[in-house]
Structure formats: C-alpha cells, structure tokens
Amino acid sequence: MKTLLFDLDGTLLPLDTDEFIENYIKMLSHEMKDLMPQDLFVKKLLDSTYAMINNTDPAKTNSEVFWEHFFQDLECDKSAVLSKIDEFYTKKFPSLKKVMRENPMSYHILKEAESLGFELVIATNPIFPEIAIRERLRWINAENFHYKLITTYENMHFAKPKVEYYEEILSITGAKPEECLMIGNDVDEDLIASKLGIKTFLVTDYLINRNNKEPKPDYAGSLNDLLNFIKSLGGGSH
User: Fold this and answer.
1) Of the four, 5, 67, 138, 178, which is 20 to 30 A from 88 by CA?
2) How many Cα atoms occupy the beta-carbon half-sphere of 166 within 13 Å?
3) CATH class for the region spanning 3-15+101-233
4) What was the pLDDT predicted at 235?
C-alpha cells in the first residue's frame, strides 16, 4: 500500500452530508437573491450539479460542464453571478463550519499517514471549487499536508460515482490500483473504486447507504479503527 485516497464530507470531515448541503444551498441562494429568484437559482444549481455528475465528455472539466449548463437559457449578467459566487466562497462559506462536529481524529490520521510515508490524495467528489474544498480542509486543520492531489471541479473531468473519476486519479498521480486504498463513508460513491482493483475502507461514523446495498469493502470501521489500521500498515512502501 502506497497511496491513501480520502473522501472528505462524512469521512475526514465529521458532518452529516445532507445537513451540510441543505445549509449550503440555503445560504448560497440567499446570497444570490438580488441577481435571480431563489427558487430558479436552486433549480439551476441542482440541475447543473447533476449535469456534472452525469458528464461523460473527457474534454470538459466539471467546472466547464457546470457553468455551460447553468447559463443555458438564462437571462442574467454572467460576470455579476460569477463575482457574487466568488464573494460567497470567500466571505460566507467559512461560516458553514457550524454544521461540523469537532473531532481531532482526522488530523491525527493524516499526520500518521504522512509520517509513515504514504502519498495522500483528497478524493472528495469534485463538484465544488478548490476554494471550498481547501476551506473544508481548514476546518479539520488539514490544509497544510503534502497532498499528491486534491480533486476539485476545476481539475477533474468526472465525478463520483463514475469509475472514470478513479481512473483519472490514477492517471494524474501515476499510482497503480493495487497500491491504493480508497477511504470513504459512501457505499455507492466510494466503494465503486474496487472495480479498478483499488482496496476500500468504509468509514462507518457517518455511513451513507442510500440504496440499502450489502456493502463489501475490504475493511470497515470508525475513524478510530482507521487510525489503528493505518498504523498497522507500517510505512507507505509496504
């Protein structure tokens, strides 16, 4: 095992993903209300997010897919919208930390993994801009680790649960599937990595199993269990 792929929301980040998304949408749509009706904005936001998740065109980044879809058939000032969104992520988004439950375990896990020589990848679903993902890493004091890759909507062309998302991570990092461990809390989005021969660890603290599947990870347990598991692996070259 050489490379550890970490999901963020509900895995390293101790929060209920649905609660986080609900608060995020409410706050962002409120900020945009002077530029467009809130219900229209929410519809555009959700539809464009689904377009990103369903995209199969390897030539377009998730960001390009999102904004092409968002501005389609929309009468508005594009530059004003983009400017307002940027302002939201800088000034308002950090307050969403309130939905997180404090837990120092994630920092200890990353610290241990880095000290043992593992390559670290933040394999969060790349449907957010980098600024939002780095902010969420700050919430767990994890912004300064040496990540091989942080997947964002600017640098990725596919999203979870597409297997192409994991293929792209392997392509960018040069890691081999058998050298990787995908660590996540979502049965559909994270365990699908196993189709490529990537080993999986299902984190159960904030487990998501929307389709009530029988999960078949290679390993499973709490964040505490994950820390002990990483310690048991020894160095990243083993």
Assistant:
1) 5
2) 29
3) alpha beta
4) 59
Contacts with 181 (C-beta within 8 Å, 6 or more apart), sequence order: 1, 3, 4, 5, 198, 199, 200, 201
Task: Tell me how far apart the alpha carbons of residues 95 and 31 are, in angstroms, rounded to a whole number.
Answer: 13
The 3 state secondary structure assigned to 205-216 is CCCECCCCCCCC
The residue type of 152 is T
pLDDT along the chain (238 residues), means of 10: 96 94 97 95 97 96 98 93 97 96 95 96 98 97 97 98 98 98 98 98 96 96 97 69
How far is it, in rounded angstroms, from Cα 30 to Cα 42? 10
Distance between CA atoms of 97 and 200, rounded to whole angstroms?
Answer: 28
